Structures are given as structure tokens and as C-alpha cells.
Predict the structure.
Amino acid sequence: MMAKADIRPPDEKATGWRGSRDVWLMAAREALISSGVDAVKIQPLANQLQIARTSFYWFFKDRNALLDALLAEWDAKNTGAFVEACGAYSESIAESILNLIVVFHDEALFEPQLDFAIRGWAHQSDATAARVREADEVRLAAIVAMFERFGFSKDEADVRARTVYLTQIGYIAMQVSESTASRVARAPGYVKTFCGQAPTPNELARFHARLKFDPSAHG
């Protein structure tokens, strides 16, 4: 779970502290994740932060500007993580997929709850739905390019990329909850299913190291 937005101490309230752009944005993100886009409103956020409503306008023109900032932050972080992982160095397609699986495990890189909340918002907003479709296209294109880099034909790369990506979106949509040990244990099987090639022991060792996961401690 994400940390709650910092609440300023009483002495800062008395001096007219306005918060910061990041504080307002963090509070908005928490509201979006916990209660949906309808909860992202200026006065309730101001009440939560114990900051005057007028302080909001030092950082954002209006509520729409805040919502746009939320979308931009989501896209930069979550889609950016996909693109970076797909382009990262690897010795094989199996290791490339492991690089991508790391993203799915690390909320510092990719926030599944935020993705879920944005997709829920998309059901209420055509503009947000369009942004989600654009992000999905960018993510899929990155995975397709990853497969093509290792010699897969365009058509095969497309189908395999969709298998990888739609599996992950399914995890998000179903809000699957499973232990790290269980999910890591399934990783070699997922890799073989996705690309037809099992990861080598060295590739798995590097994967476990990136996750700071010790298989021997989990039987």
C-alpha cells in the first residue's frame, strides 16, 4: 500500500503553509485508488490535508488540471516501466520476459492498484478511455518489439505479446492476491508459455536477485 500524504504539523498550519504540488497529487492519487475519480475533489482533499482550499490554486488551475496530472503521472510511471523493461539488456527472450515480470512484482516500478483505478475511471470518461487505449498500444508495441528483437516474426510476436500483456491485465482486473513465493515459483512456467523457451538457472538467479527473493528460504 502507498504511504498516506503527509499532514502538516499545527505550527505550519498557523504560518499559512500551502502544501506542495506533490502533496496534493499524492492525496488525489490515494482518493482515486480508494474511492474512484468522483472522490477526487478539491474541498475533500483540502480537508484531508488540513490546508485551505485556496492553496490548491497555487499548484493547479482547476480540478481538470489535477486529473490531467494524475493521468500523466500514471502513464509516465506504469507505461514507462513497461517500455524500459522491454528494452533492457538480456541474453535471451526468456530473460527479457523475466525483466518484464520483475515490473509486475515491484510497485515502486508499476502500481497495479493505480492501473485498476485508472481503468475504472475510463468507464466514466471517453477522454480517459482514449488515454488508456493509447497506453495499452504503447505497452503492447514495446512487448512486440521485444519479441521481434529475438527473431520472432511480426505476427507471432503480436500474438505472444498479447498473451503476456493480457495475462497481466487479467491479474489487475481480477485483483488477484497471491504470495510472492507462489508467483515467483510460477515465473519459469509463465516464461516458457509466453515464449516457448525456459529460462536458464543463471537467468532465474538474476531474476531472484532483482526481486531480493531467496528460493531456498521458501522450500
User: Anything to note?
Assistant: The longest helix spans residues 63-87. The CA atoms of residues 6 and 23 lie 7 Å apart.
